[in-house]
Amino acid sequence: MSTCPAGHETTATDYCDVCGIAMDAAASPAAASPATAPTAAAATGTCPNCSATNPANALFCEACGYDFTTGSMPRPVAPPTVATPAASDAAVTGANPSPPLTDHWVAEVWIDPDWYVDQKSTDPLPSPGLPLVVALKNTSILIGRASRSRNITPDIDLSSDNGISRRHAQLTTDGSRWWVEDLGSSNGTYVGGNVGALPTTPVPPGQKQEVSADDRIYVGAWTRIVVRRAADGEF
Hints:
By secondary structure, the chain is mainly beta. The chain has helices spanning 37-44, 87-93, 113-119; strands at residues 2-3, 9-10, 100-111, 132-138, 140-144, 156-157, 167-173, 178-182, 189-192, 208-211, 216-219, 223-229. It has a five-stranded antiparallel sheet. The longest helix is centred in the N-terminal third of the chain and has 8 residues, at 37-44. The N and C termini lie far apart (74 Å).
């Protein structure tokens, strides 16, 4: 058992486990005796922690917060809280600049087990179920995975599918017809019909391909997208 410079009994050899003062402070020529350190410091006003000058008989050091009465070290100051952008701010930052659609359209996003098998992905397949219905509100629609650091906020956010690029593909419309364009994605964008075999030839990057009413767009490891007019109550 040792005694710290502030007079506390402690088993520590580096810092007192009662007040936190350095144990080797006693070796300093300027250090007061353990039994009188807090009292002497309070009387003189000289802080034993930071050496700042304080009014005589002060209770705390005005510079660092050292407790003259108990000989306790100051508590660490918590770092300032950094405000993060609100969700509305992110929406404004990544707002779609293209003209709004006058008609109501939606995209059905499906998990397609057949496409998953064809892609030979090593990621586990999510449980297929009902499609996610996404309202399409602009004439240009970005398909991809969101990234706050890159300020990418896709209109059709497919972040759960790791086979999809951040900026994967783009849908455009004249109000009645739709086209899809691959944006140089890693795994390509495919368009196929609602019957027959799955597509095997990707849409050439940078070229628009029209998507008919019965077509399906395939991207990533398991995602199938169908673009259609909105039904009542979907918008």
